[in-house]
Amino acid sequence: MALSARALYDFVSENPGEISVVENELLTLFSEDVVDGWLEGTNSRGESGLFPASYVEILSSDKGLSVQGNGEAYHSSYAAGTEYSYQRSAQQGDTSTESTPTRGYPTYSYHSTSQGSDEDWDDDWDEGPAAANQPGGVPGKGGSALASSSSSAYPASPRRGSTQQSRSSATVGRNLNRFSTFVKSGGEAFVLGEASGIVREEDKICVVMGQFGPEWQENPRPFTCSIDDPTKQTKFKGMKSYMSYGLTPSHTQIQVNRRYKHFDWLYARLVERFPVISVPHLPEKQATGRFEEDFISKRRKGLIWWMNHMTTHPVLSRCDVFQHFLTCSSNDEKAWKQGKRKAERDCLVGANFFLTIIPPAIPLDLQDVESKVDGFKTFAKKMDESLAQVNVTLGEFARKQVTGFRKEYQRVGQAFQLLGQAFELDQQEYSLKLNQAMAFTAQAYEAVGDYFVDQPRQDLEPVSDLLAIYQGHLANFPDIIHVQKGALTKAKESQRHADEKDGSAGINERCNIISCATLAEMQHFHRTRVRDFKAQMQHYLQQQIAFYQRITGKLEEALHMYDQA
Amino acid sequence: MALSARALYDFVSENPGEISVVENELLTLFSEDVVDGWLEGTNSRGESGLFPASYVEILSSDKGLSVQGNGEAYHSSYAAGTEYSYQRSAQQGDTSTESTPTRGYPTYSYHSTSQGSDEDWDDDWDEGPAAANQPGGVPGKGGSALASSSSSAYPASPRRGSTQQSRSSATVGRNLNRFSTFVKSGGEAFVLGEASGIVREEDKICVVMGQFGPEWQENPRPFTCSIDDPTKQTKFKGMKSYMSYGLTPSHTQIQVNRRYKHFDWLYARLVERFPVISVPHLPEKQATGRFEEDFISKRRKGLIWWMNHMTTHPVLSRCDVFQHFLTCSSNDEKAWKQGKRKAERDCLVGANFFLTIIPPAIPLDLQDVESKVDGFKTFAKKMDESLAQVNVTLGEFARKQVTGFRKEYQRVGQAFQLLGQAFELDQQEYSLKLNQAMAFTAQAYEAVGDYFVDQPRQDLEPVSDLLAIYQGHLANFPDIIHVQKGALTKAKESQRHADEKDGSAGINERCNIISCATLAEMQHFHRTRVRDFKAQMQHYLQQQIAFYQRITGKLEEALHMYDQA
Questions:
Q1: pLDDT digits (tens, 9 = 90+) for A283-334
Q2: Partners of B38 in the beta sheet?
Q3: pLDDT per position as a tens digit, A8-51
Q4: How large is the ipTM?
Q5: Which end of chain A is more exposed for a tag (fewer CB within 10 A), N or C?
Q6: Topology, domain A214-358
Q7: Is B45 annotated as a binding residue?
Q8: Which fold has domain A366-564?
Q9: Between chains, do B552 and A545 touch, taking CB under 8 Å as contact?
Q10: DSSP annotation of B317
Q11: Closest Cα in chain A, distance from residue B258 (Å)
């Protein structure tokens, strides 16, 4: 059997001697010897040349070794749309100095470069040196920003001319995909043992073994945080205006005022700080073509959901930057800037984040982990698809209620009104009460028509808000799964070479840490999902029941009008 | 001022020397002398010649007399469609030996010539000599039948070569419109004093002065009559089959079985017997393109409404032919035929019917009568228009519920089902109850969709049935109004000539009888309308309330599923 490989990722040749390969493409290898991270072979179009060894998996060799899980090349995303949006954001060559990711979800899309009319981005506090100091370990960043990244946690690719081999293992090479989340998240660096840093006791994140597998250790001091209606603030003697949200955390009971840009900044910190945690997406910054009031109300609802997901996450709720955001006095500019700078200089981001995770004493069975992660992937894909469908259906249902249903009930009202008007031409005493009752019935049906217009705001919109935050989470999980899968691949690779070289124990240990964190996050997702959907379905049904009771009540009023007729 | 006249009806010239006139057309008269019932003049198209004097009203004369109510030429129908259908049925040259009228209402149209599959029209009892013996005093009959009519109550027109003048008044001539309801009903003959017959005490119909004007004296022995589900009967050893309805009048408590053709025959008797009474239309004989069961159910509902209107009418409920229909044993063929022949030979039909009416002691004020009749005409026109609109709207509403509404609710159900199916991929213990609740919610919305499909049968269809019977009544009233208007015109005409000739007192008296009967029938219509619409609107609203309560109940069931989730 010929020596062959399957491409794990797309690779586009940029120099003479290189050949392009497409994900899943079968390649014939000239040799399985990796030279400076490159392999030589022929692609399916008959072109021969070099391609990065880490972009492929070797399918069979004369030594009889094969990579476990052949033919199961995983994708960085279960939703084609998400993948597409990543690529698009990279292609757009985002020149923003902000390093926030573009998650590409239509409902909760995140646009750090848009300049909202009610926001002012010229504040000096946004332009500190910290901005250039941010690691690039977030998806959606362009290649140029990546190339200039000076973060030590960030691995250099062979393309960049580095000939340096991994310190920990010569046989387990680096992933050459410069856009791989596994690489960018720092997951690879951590697995390869390149992460180092001092972890304070309070930064340690424990994963405990729960009834249903690994779980984040619960926050011993749970709290909530209310968000008031935003108020319009002005500065520069009224030249500039912005909306300010009053936040009151339950554990301090002290209100702080934050602007949307503060949420935005916090979000960016959290995303770079926690590679395998699904940071809830912020509601869209500005919706075009909407009335301001509707938009402000919708964004506040989105922020309430966001805050709810933040405060109930055992890890996110306790982290320094979030606590700083929630508790730093709005009037203490100095304290705010200190906390801001501290967060932006945090060393425990990217690869180092994984150093903070304390796994349960007994390592997980990797086979079991893989099966669970695959199960979650299937689940998430299906849920993502059904959310999209439910969103469309409920949106259409709301639209029909506001237009069609209303029209039908009002037409019935108008028909009764017309008949009532004919009846009113007869003014004999015994007709009068019937005439009144008919007129009332006509009004009742007109009113019911109006009920239908109001209703979606009561029941369907809250469901839609919930779906949006979950669509955001589901858009996060492909990356999280990608990191875990990357770690698992490394662990398997290291096991394959375990006979020859040592170092596999360390890799397994670190892979276990990533797996524990991933499964804990998935568990958290499920628990939150059950909690949220239970509450929201109850709310929806309660509102629906109240709605039909309201109709019933109106019709009963109309019915009683006939008692005297 | 030139001597002129306004045409009251269309007249089409058939012989040289005659000119055609169109209703409302202004004519210039050569002279106001009526020769053998004809006037001479010029129409608006400049044609000069003869036209029937009774087809026009003289607008001004050199004697300074003018007909009261000038410029208020009444129409035989307020609904153009009704008029049209009359003409059409005459033009069709109906060759049926049945002399039943074609009322032309789409919902309850009456087709005596159609051969329904479940009916057998070859029965010998339908072909007795009585059929040829029936007077032609019903609308919709062709001219040929009219010409061959031997009924003494029927006035000969001048067109037919008769030179005989009215016995009672030389100045009040006959109406020459051979299709005028006033003429055909016998109203004219009665007003002119040509009706004669012996009225038994039990045939007398009293009009009493009630709180709101003339009323039919109430039936001192009111009763109701139930109609069972029809059963299929066969005869000729199963060769022929028909549906038989079991009728049980409350005053006999003895069930009789009647076929649709018996209703049909009864209806024809009633129409010829009672010119100014609105005989309720029978439900359509056979609807094409419907499932038999649906049709049978619909016709039974229509017959129930019909029976309700019959038994609650003070005059119709008491008349011999109806009592014969309700009480003659289904097994006594001989008694049935006797009663049948008696009814068909009834002398008190047409003009003689009016002999049976006993008016209140004090004659009505004719001005007041005219104003009331005009008011009713306006009312009936408006009600007729609104019923048509309500019918369309409710039909559309029903259609939307069965299609659109159902689809929307089922789509919501399907969306929840889809989401539930995604959730079911997670089989952790804490998810199971939510999964069950989601599945139940999905089913609940599917069920609500089905409720919408069932609902119109419960609430909208009964309303539609009611509208149909009232559309039938409203189609009757133009003829009733026409008879009264004709009588009023005669009375006015006679008053005009009162100085010259006598006989006006008798005409006034007879006009008063027709007016009393007309107003009593209108009063009865209003009372019945208030009763029926009150009951039906209550039923509709009760059904609607029950419907929304049913939805509420289903959603509450779904809500409780989340209690344990």
A1: 876 655 445 677 778 888 999 999 999 999 999 999 999 999 999 998 899 9
A2: B35, B52
A3: 888 888 777 788 888 888 888 888 777 767 788 888 888 888 88
A4: 0.72
A5: N
A6: PX Domain (3.30.1520)
A7: no
A8: Substrate Binding Domain Of Dnak; Chain:A; Domain 2 (1.20.1270)
A9: yes
A10: G
A11: 35
